Amino acid sequence: MKNCKPVKFIAYILLCAALITGLYVSADTYEEVPTPSYTYWSGGKTKKAVKTKALYSFYKYSELAEYDSGAAEPAHMAYSPDGKLYILDTNGKIMILDREYRLISEISSVNYGGENITFSGARGIYIASDGLLYICDTENKRVIICSGNTVERIVTKPESSVIPSDFEFTPIRIVKDSRNFSYLLCDGCYYGLMVFDSDFRFIGFFGANKVANSILDAVSNWFTSIFNTGEKHEATVKKLPYQITDIAMNNGFVCAVNAEEKGQLRMFATTGDNILRYSEQYENGNGDEYNFADEPNSFVDVTDKWANLLTQSFSSVASDSFGYMYALDSMQGRIYIYDEECNIIGVFGGGMGSGSQKGTFATAGTLAIYGDDLAVIDIVKKSLTVFKITEYGKAVKNAQRLTLGGDYEKAYPVWQSVNSQDKNMQLAYLGLAKYYLGAGDYPSAMKYSKTGNDQTVYAQAFRSQRNMWIRGHLWLIGVIAAVIIIAVIAIRVYFKRKHIKFRVNAKIKNALKVLTHPIECFNNIKNHGMGSVAIATVLLILYYVTSISQKLLSGFMYQNTDLTSFNSVFTLLGTVGVMLLYVTVNWAACILFEGKGKFKQIYCASMYCLIPLILNSLLYIILSYVIIPDSNSGFGLLTVFFQAFFVILILLSITVIHDFGFMKSVGLGIVIIIGMGIFGFVLFAVFSLAQDLISFVLGVIKEVALR
Length: 707
Known about the structure:
Blueprint: H1 4-23, E1 37-43, E2 46-51, E3 56-63, E4 74-79, E5 85-89, E6 93-97, E7 103-107, E8 110-112, E9 115-117, E10 124-127, E11 133-137, E12 142-147, E13 150-155, E14 171-176, E15 182-186, E16 193-196, E17 202-206, H2 215-227, H3 230-235, E18 244-250, E19 253-258, E20 265-268, E21 314-319, E22 325-329, E23 334-338, E24 344-349, E25 364-370, E26 373-378, E27 383-389, H4 391-404, H5 408-421, H6 426-439, H7 442-451, H8 455-472, H9 474-497, H10 506-512, H11 518-527, H12 533-553, H13 568-592, H14 599-608, H15 611-623, H16 633-658, H17 662-706
């Protein structure tokens, strides 16, 4: 036992040393905390961020000083066709790493006609499929094309009438397509990409961003041109389009990112037009109108409480051999993965500030993709981070590739595996729904498409299922219809023989006349006291209830309400609040126009006019379970009909209640709308001021309490 004491003492010393080492760990050592991965569930006009299994996992972290102690600032990187990673440093050096990310060679100068030339200040590199190295020698305003260390060609600013005289040839990115055409991005260029043919003859500019001028901008420019002198007008700051910041090739198309709030990710056709359409689930809108990055405050990063307060900005883009696009958010260090149709696959990464967590960054600069590897350069930490795709990530990408190719049968078992691993991957439900639709299993297709929030596939499956049911139960439909007709006839005959009559309350009967004899109904309210405040109030309540029911109870094919953020108070204000405001402004305006209607009469007549809208909501709910959206022209016209009916009834009520001519009623209607707008604005302003005042008072109280 005594002999054990030295052993225990040594163990104790080692334990203490380990603890001390852990306490004094270098700031460059990454924590073992995984970065969050998430995707977006889309549908209707909304998208919701949900956590998923990791698509990529952290693999390696290296400081560039480990490869070269003289490294200044990493500018760009690119993979070669054989998987080597080329890292360009602004000090004019290219570090070449092997597949295990070990330094194997460097390029600090290249031979041009027997002379060694350098490329300090270069900001972009590209390795073509034939192995040629393209260096965007930015500060020297040239592109150096090399085979190994030997210069094959140097490209400078071309002579062309198309190029403006003030154009600066400052290349920062270059890519090539299958035709051997080159697309060159220059720093500070608002004209788009420069296009060169296979012999590097300049063809023209390509894919320039458009200036988004609003009506306010146009008016401002007009006033400026009137009141300013020529010199002052020329001196005013012109609104310029956003610059493209990075480019990549994606299956023959040029991908690009820019710092614009919307349309950050683009894919250009040969015409230079953006061909991205951001999914059927967003009403087939153009990609120019959509921010492919996070919406502000859409997702709270569990690793950084401030992450959700910043607007994202793509700085770099890459593409793999399967057409998947990878966009790097420089603001929050996240990598966004999209398929070739720009459906979101997933998002991972993050970090702001120190970037001390694995897979996070202080300031992410550029990324590159090759096979299963994804590399990111941190321009602040001057480091390289490499991610490896997970088995789950491989399955998702493989299944989605098969689905986009129409091979639903091969995609089916993969999607099943993905769905069993992670219930939060929306693409899995969509892929399974398409498989079942193609296999003729329409109930399963409806089930998975509804879970995956895909109204298009659901509608297709529903149509097929509905038609099958009708064909199989046509005899039953005929029997039910015959029974109903016979029952109605029998009841009518019985009531007629027994002299049975139903007595309806006169005021209720008059209210229902608004649908068939509206003028008589309003005349009875005005001249015969047939208006009922109780009936009118019930109709107002029914209008509110049916409006909510239409939003919440409509069939899935027509469901566009985000139930997680639905607020019945807004519906209350938009129905009951608007109608009460209308009645109040109507009564006030009629005094100015010498109308003869009383408040009670205006209230009752106005609420009776709501009956068509109530009927519309009820019919909408019922028909939304039967009618297919792509064949709903009659459905849409039905809603328009009831809304037009409501407007006509409102005008007729003004005419009869106030004893006006029709044109005077139209004029009063316009005045009422304007008055409602003014009143609503004043009410909003008062509410905002009251809110600010309450916040100020609470702040003062809190400050006093702290002191």
